[in-house]
Specification:
Blueprint: E1 2-4, E2 7-9, E3 11-14, E4 23-27, H1 38-44, E5 49-53, H2 72-86, E6 92-97, H3 99-108, E7 117-123, H4 128-140, H5 144-156, H6 158-162, H7 168-188, H8 201-221, E8 232-237, E9 258-263, H9 269-272, H10 274-288, H11 295-300, E10 301-302
Parallel strand pairs: 4-5, 4-6, 6-7, 7-8, 8-9
Antiparallel strand pairs: 1-2, 3-5, 9-10
Helix pairs in contact: 1-10, 2-3, 4-8, 7-8
Length: 304
């Protein structure tokens, strides 16, 4: 366990922390637990010290007492607490999926925290401030192409509105949690396992609604997009039902070291393409740690 304020975070470590190998910290999204990373963690642990944890309100971690406890500032504090507990004195290589990516962007763009991270691989979901800047640029200078991009993302974002409705939490407890494994398999082609989705899925889904309610309103209307000096790799799933690939455009504005790779896949890359995810993460880790830039990284480097 790692403590962040009043919240206890359930941490799992893979591989050996004492061998001097880099630490790779994998952060899951909604409505998952750290179990989503198991196929990736198993592969990465052959070479690195790997850390996963259940984010606040999910799995075996405790939940904040109210919705405000899900604000991004608290999620960043959690990230820093886990990094400090598992890799004291040495920056970790951060990997985020879905909300793990959203809070990862917030962390690497936050002064006083970003130096805890040696690199960031985003299985792409944008930072909320960057997403707001992306949309604002297309509203300010409308073109047919840009307006189509906005419309495409708005259609994908239907669930954000749904999660603000009064009955959103009750739907998870009333039956959506029980049906979630079948929905994942049918719609996303994600095969369930003994440990995934977690048995806590109904509670995780209900409590995690707080992520949307605590963050979307103020971040979209009062965005403060900031750059980062952390090397960033974005892996864009071109068949994602929730995040448009177009939202990964313009990222050169926010980091001087950027690699962007497209993968023909859906949203749940850690489950459907774990070998590929592990390979991409390892290539960036090795390069940042002093190894040569792989051919793939050279081909995906984005200039500013």
């Amino acid at each position: 366990m790692a403590r962040a304020g009043a919240v206890q975070l359930a941490v799992t470590e893979w591989g050996q922390a004492s061998t001097g190998e880099p630490t790779v910290l994998l952060v899951h999204g909604y409505p998952d637990t750290s179990a989503v990373w198991e196929p990736v963690a198993e592969r990465l642990a052959r070479r690195y010290h790997v850390v996963t944890y259940d984010v606040r309100g999910a799995g075996h971690s405790t939940a904040p007492s109210d919705t405000s406890g899900y604000r991004l500032s608290h999620l960043v504090d959690d990230l820093a607490a886990v990094a400090d507990a598992t890799s004291p004195g040495r920056p970790v290589h951060l990997v985020g999926h879905d909300w793990g990516s959203i809070q990862g962007w917030e962390a690497v763009c936050t002064d006083g925290v970003s130096d805890r991270f040696a690199s960031f691989t985003s299985l792409y979901a944008p930072g909320l401030d960057h997403a707001a800047a992306w949309a604002a640029a297309r509203w300010r200078h409308p073109t047919p192409h840009g307006l189509r991009q906005l419309a495409g993302q708005q259609l994908r974002s239907w669930y954000i509105v749904a999660f603000h409705l009064p009955g959103a939490r009750a739907v998870w407890r009333a039956g959506l949690g029980r049906r979630w494994p079948q929905i994942l398999q049918r719609v996303e082609k994600v095969a369930p396992s003994d440990s995934y989705p977690a048995g806590t899925i109904a509670v995780d889904g209900a409590q995690g609604v707080g992520l949307y309610r605590a963050n979307f309103g103020n971040r979209i209307t009062s965005a403060d997009p900031r750059p980062t000096t952390v090397p960033v790799q974005v892996v864009v799933a071109t068949k994602d039902h929730f995040v448009s690939p177009a939202m990964s455009e313009d990222l050169q504005r926010w980091t001087a070291s950027l690699w962007r790779t497209e993968v023909e896949a859906g949203h749940w890359l850690p489950r459907t393409h774990p070998e590929l995810v592990a390979q991409y993460v390892a290539e960036l880790v090795d390069h940042v740690e002093g190894g040569p830039e792989s051919e793939r990284l050279r081909g995906s480097r984005a200039g500013r």
